[in-house]
Amino acid sequence: MLKILLVDDHAVVRDGLAAILSTEPSFEVVAAVASIDQALQRLRGQAIDGVLLDLLLGEDNAVDRLDSIRQIAPDTVVLMLSSVQDERQARQAIRQGAAGFLTKDMDADALILAIKAATRGEMQLSSKLDPRLVRGAGAIDSEGLSVRESDVLQLLAEGLPNADIAARLGIGEATVKTHVGNLLAKLGVNDRTQAAVYAWKHGLVRRGGGSG
What CATH code is carried by the domain that includes residue 13? Predict the structure, then answer.
């Protein structure tokens, strides 16, 4: 069962999202909170598979706080949810480690499918946004990767399969698949081989620098 955390500063939105997700037997909404700080507290206290994060939380831009989330919970998938179609914010969110950028006008079934796909490592983007935002949207550097993504990329570039990467990092193989999918999208490449070539060419990995 996937444990989901909802973060939105409007109670009616939180309640609506919780009601929608509760219809999916494989989801468990563990909490619905109003701020990033409350979300971080929850993430410190338990393992959570996915976070649905509102773009604007009062005066707080959630994209600017993604670093805090990925430092505490590097294996948690974060999907941004916005009431506006903002390509600049979507691009920044992806570069900061989000697994996708969705708009609140999507239907319930599509939202459930998007969450499932994101936890499988598939980057999610609103159909109303340009898909090129997550493929070849510009050169990426190590600052655009989470700590865990950098670890996975290092081992991937050394030729390790997902099972070995999972064992080396002490995480699940499904989690590795999620990170690999995010890496392919961020680097704008189609497969693991291209990701490894890109990583070596652009200095994103180091010789003899396996994680662990």
Answer: 3.40.50.2300
H or E stretch covering 32: strand 27-33
Q: What are phi and psi of 2, to 5 degrees?
A: -85, 125
Pair of tokens at residue 25: 């037997």
CA distance 86 to 129: 8
CA distance 146 to 107: 30
- Residue 211 located in a structural domain: no
pLDDT digit string (tens) for 167-198? 999 888 888 988 898 888 888 888 899 999 98
Count other C-beta atoms under 10 Å from residue 162's C-beta.
20
AA letter at 203: G
Q: What is the pLDDT of residues 5-24, one digit of tens each?
A: 999 999 999 999 999 999 99
DSSP secondary structure letter of residue 64:
G
Instruction: Give phi and psi for 120, each to the nearest 5.
Output: -90, 0
